[in-house]
Design the sequence.
């Protein structure tokens, strides 16, 4: 398969890219490094990326940002970061990318545990994750040519524990092989419209 992995140089993305590269042709998209440069918050940049890359069998997005801060400090602009990047960035990847995915191919998006189990300072990130879950269930009903879509929602991943553990007291870090398997299940499996949760019930 020819697999485009946006965010494929990030903490999760590099592990997922390394895994898929053992069996498939992987093209990494990133904002500052990668085989192709893209900013998912900008739909013109997404269009340019797909024109450069051409048809693919799978699009995997492991990128997208949202601002983490106390709710009473959040401005409307602060919420816009998550709406433009993690939410509409991933929606636009599917909207624009559907013409570049071969019949029977797939999209795999990324959210996270905050959709179900938010922690402090995540009103924006949690909201955006929940929106993507609903989007995936709805758009799965309408994608043509047997194109599938799923979303992987992991808990705090092992490779990011140092960076985020203070925000997630008592959470069980998710081993990287389980996180990778979420993406493998989506890309190589047959399911569609699924929220692939890689965490226990905390
Ligand atoms: N870390 C966790 O424990 C965890 C758990 C569950 C879900 N998630 C979610 O998984 C995703 C990846 O997390 P991570 O920890 O791997 O993040 P990360 O280490 O910061 O890596 C993110 C990657 O995405 C790229 N990227 C960011 N914004 C982009 C944009 N607008 N357009 C194109 N590429 C962009 C970055 O490229 P540049 O470096 O070039 O900017 C980088 O390669 C995030 O959405 C995060 O919320 C993370």
Sequence:
């Amino acid at each position: 398969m020819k697999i485009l992995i946006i965010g494929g140089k990030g903490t999760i993305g590099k592990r997922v890219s390394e895994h898929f590269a053992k069996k498939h042709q992987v093209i990494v998209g990133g904002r500052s490094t990668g085989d192709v440069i893209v900013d998912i918050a900008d739909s013109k940049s997404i269009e340019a990326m797909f024109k450069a890359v051409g048809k693919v069998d799978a699009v995997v997005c492991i990128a997208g940002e949202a601002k983490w801060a106390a709710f009473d400090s959040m401005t409307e602009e602060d919420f816009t970061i998550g709406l433009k990047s993690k939410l509409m960035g991933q929606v636009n990847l599917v909207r624009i990318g559907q013409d570049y995915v071969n019949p029977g191919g797939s999209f795999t998006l990324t959210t996270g545990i905050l959709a179900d189990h938010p922690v402090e300072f995540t009103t924006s990130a949690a909201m955006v994750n929940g929106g993507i879950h609903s989007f995936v269930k709805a758009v799965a009903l309408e994608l043509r040519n047997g194109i599938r879509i799923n979303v992987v929602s992991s808990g705090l991943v092992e490779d990011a524990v140092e960076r985020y553990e203070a925000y997630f007291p008592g959470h069980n870090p998710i081993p990287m092989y389980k996180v990778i398997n979420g993406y493998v299940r989506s890309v190589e499996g047959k399911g569609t419209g699924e929220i692939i949760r890689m965490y226990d019930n905390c």
